[in-house]
Amino acid sequence: MCACAWSHRRLRPAPKTSLEVGCARGYSGRFVISFVKRVSAAMVCAALMALCSAVVHAQPALQSPAQIVAVLPQSGALVGVGEQLVEVMMWAAADAGASLIVVDSELANDALVEALSHALSDEGVVGIVGPLRASRAGLVAALSSQARVPALLLSGVEGVEERSHWAFRARLSVGEQASFAASWAYEQWPQARVGVMAPLTEYGDEAARAFVSAWSKEGARVVGLARYRSGETQFTPVVETLLGARVRLERGREVAGRRADRWGTVRVGAQRLDGLDVLLLADFDDAIARQAPFIVREKALQQTQLLGLSGWGGQRLQQSGEELAGAVFFDTFGGIAQGGAAEAFVLAFETRFVREPTTVEAEVFDLVGFLASSGRGDAIRTLRSSQGFEGVTGRWRFDRRGAPLRVPQALRVTEDGRWIPLNSWSAETPDAL
């Protein structure tokens, strides 16, 4: 009978207790006491089980798993990248007991707003990961603010994080990477003669400008700079420009009555530099692989320490290991050679996907795992804290604007075209490189 029900039965004499009954039947006191203890314990257990059962039935169904919204390309030119990242994120979510809601970042603005708003209306959503493109980051940041849900933006363009107090840029910009490379190099070789080669693209502009600026702030000067068209395959004129034997001209300009050749340069005589100590090659792995033979053949560059950014980390680099052995580039993920949690992640990843993970795949694994283990409130508090959180790619921290405070790893290229982290970049000596 329910505790709230009223009984209309007539009162009856109270029954005798177990102890009284036992004594009346002639049982010994010790036996009766033992018997009563057992019965009382059983009754207590039964009562607790009934109470627990009542509480369980009174509670609503078990809380649904945390949900994470992935805003990634599911159409358009980047669909392959988007689908690949979604696969990894689904694996990470399932591993953490969460679920993934996928929204196509390439939808028209109105459709994207509608799809993302619908996804964020679910109270189980703990965060957003994406988009890749900066042009969509502002819209995602605004909607995350309205829903009061943290958004971890995968764009590496500086400033996208400032559009919402709930937005955090998860990836380092090209400029931040290049600035770090300059600071690293200056700590190793403060008196070095330094040069930069970069493509005539937004990527190349940002990398060259940031590296030169950071090096100049140390009171030093970049002595060689060469730019080239994207997709260039003939790098002899580029190397000659770097060393001062050629100068680059803008279209339509002349020097001493001479117009630029097909590479956009004019030869000005003997090269001005007999060598460089450090050279930043600010491009992606396929371009670096094309440049490598020209660089190693140039006598003035055979003792030069080559530096690169995260764009070096790709399959084409493996084809140029012999030429680029000893070069150092910078990235937030060192792969299996990083050891610890990173090694375990790579082994699990290769078992599942039968290939090595890219840096961005390791990063989204971190981000999904973090959000899945946090509620909305816990996630935003952690993201705004000075401690941040730890993942397979290292520690994640953000400044008050939401920009990443990550320290890239210095990775040395081996002769077989792979790369290994330097044990402690601040302790390395030039000879060790």
Describe the overall structure.
The longest helix is centred in the first third of the chain and has 30 residues, at 29-58. A seven-stranded mixed sheet has the order 7-6-12-13-14-17-18. The protein folds into two domains: 67-172 and 340-396, Rossmann fold (3-Layer(aba) Sandwich), CATH 3.40.50; 175-331 and 408-432, 3-Layer(aba) Sandwich (Rossmann fold). It has 14 helices and 18 strands. The chain has helices at 18-24, 29-58, 79-95, 109-120, 134-147, 174-188, 202-217, 236-242, 285-297, 315-318, 321-324, 340-353, 359-372, 376-384; strands at residues 67-72, 99-104, 125-129, 151-153, 167-169, 194-199, 222-228, 246-248, 254-255, 258-259, 265-267, 278-281, 305-308, 328-331, 389-391, 394-396, 409-413, 419-421. A hairpin with a 5-residue loop joins strand 17 (409-413) and strand 18. The protein is of the alpha/beta class and 433 residues long.
